[in-house]
Model the fold of this input.
Amino acid sequence: MKITRRQLKKIIKEELLKTQSVSEGMSLHIRKNVGVDKNIFRPGSSAFFALFREARQLYTEGRYNATETELELLEDMDIGEFGVTESGEVVPIDYPMIDGEYDIDEATYKGKKVKLNDPKRSDGKAYVYVKTKKKDKKGRYKVKKVTFGSSMPDAMGDSDAHKKRRKSFGDRHNCADKKDKTKPGWWSCRATKFFGRSIPGWW
Done:
């Protein structure tokens, strides 16, 4: 018997709730079918950040079906994680500070202040600064400059031929499997959304 997508989601949800590794807050989100982008905890609280970390872990393990909105938080951002500023202060990553005391998207690369996850163009190439999983001697996350490919400008239209080219690109480069933001392929597959193009497909 063929199982529909809705039935599969229900089965996964029921199995997930059976495990004891799911927190009460995460369990509530799953039961109510409400994404973690509508986090039930007070913004900025420990529980608020912990929920994002838990959801990201479950998603990475294939145990949580994230919505498109959640994917941006769980894949494209590091909300729930923490970094250390040059002054040694621990701050949340990808979370706006109400008082604007520090810019959590800012980091240092080879002694220069740079903005993280903000692609730029230069000499026909695109580049972006990203946080790695490695830390320096002071406990700060190291920053890496990632250079990635062109934006395929001749395939940005709405014609069937253009859509076919974009799909072909996504298939050839296995865009659906790109999970590492420190690799050029991750950015190449998502270049359109970062450079202001809202078209269907990876490009």
In short: The first strand starts at residue 82 and ends at 84. The chain has seven helices and seven strands.
